[in-house]
């Protein structure tokens, strides 16, 4: 038996008579999700459970409509094994990431396959406008997805700001200019399934670890857009901080005599290291017009001479913040979600070189990666979060 640990679905359960069954089901569900396709015999071997327990549990999962048989596998000896997998088309999660000018919409099936990926512009980011738009998105997604065993079972919403963990209340979002918004209560009237509201950086980090760095127990993700946020896993556990306030790293001071930030602090990282700040600095050095995101990425690919110092200053600001995070938390992996770094390998290499030169520990203990998920990461993480809750519900039945 390999040490696969206990899946998240059984955390916090007490030792009553249902615990053993719940633990067994949780382990088997976790293996089915991770392996993709696996036989009953392989499930027994990898889990350490006896064959009778595996057969009984698998039969129940098939009856529930969560798992299905896919055909026969390969075997050198004896009868070919019947293979099993999670029935991806049995249900779907919907993730929505709120930005100041748009909603990024992702839907994933039970197997984690993306079946819907859309970007919809919004007229403004006021709570009323966003809530009405979310209602329309839900109805549209239900029509596009169609009927299935569990249908659209969950909705996760990623918000750029502080979200209270005890009630999913949006405490503050400087990016959206929101304060004390009961988003969950408003959306609950439009959707009856699993509902989760979370910080966009934390949800992006969940997606990065689940899909991109599953073996990294100590990981920090830095999300760079109009602002800078971060999420983290320490010892394999996602971090939320006191009542959801973890990760507001964009508001740590990197310039003690810098300008005052709207948050009230002085010289915040947000004022210098964001892609919006980069666009503003390019506009000042150019024709005065703020370049679009597409134009920014075109410049990042080529880095014409007149813009070189501006891009290099951007990397310097990023370096200052990343070095502070590495020195403070000692992660094994730092993933930076930045469209600019994604399209410009030279800028990313410059960042890694400068961080390596300035970080306290000079050995290659921390790997720096650029995200491949891009701005879809928060909505993907929202899907993953509600899917975890869905599977938890199956385990504790």
Describe the oligomeric state of these chains in a short phrase.
single chain
Per DSSP, the total helix count is: 12
How confident overall, as mean pLDDT? 90
- Do you know the CATH architecture of the largest domain? 2-Layer Sandwich
**In percent, how much strand structure appears in the residues?**
15-25%
Protein name: ROK family transcriptional regulator
Family: Belongs to the ROK (NagC/XylR) family.
Pfam family, one: ROK
Organism: Breznakiella homolactica
Brief write-up:
With 397 residues, the chain is α/β, with parallel strands linked by helices. It folds into three domains: 17-86, Orthogonal Bundle (Arc Repressor Mutant, subunit A), CATH 1.10.10.10; 92-205 and 377-396, Nucleotidyltransferase, domain 5 (2-Layer Sandwich); 212-374, ATPase, nucleotide binding domain (Nucleotidyltransferase, domain 5, 2-Layer Sandwich). It has helices at residues 19-35, 40-47, 51-64, 127-145, 183-188, 200-211, 275-285, 293-302, 308-329, 339-343, 345-358, 377-395; strands spanning 38-39, 67-72, 82-86, 91-98, 102-109, 114-121, 151-159, 162-163, 170-173, 178-181, 194-199, 219-224, 228-234, 237-238, 333-337, 367-370.
Summarize the topology.
Layout: H1 19-35, E1 38-39, H2 40-47, H3 51-64, E2 67-72, E3 82-86, E4 91-98, E5 102-109, E6 114-121, H4 127-145, E7 151-159, E8 162-163, E9 170-173, E10 178-181, H5 183-188, E11 194-199, H6 200-211, E12 219-224, E13 228-234, E14 237-238, H7 275-285, H8 293-302, H9 308-329, E15 333-337, H10 339-343, H11 345-358, E16 367-370, H12 377-395
Parallel strand pairs: 4-7, 7-11, 12-15, 15-16
Antiparallel strand pairs: 1-3, 2-3, 4-5, 5-6, 8-9, 9-10, 12-13, 13-14
Helix pairs in contact: 2-3, 6-12, 9-11
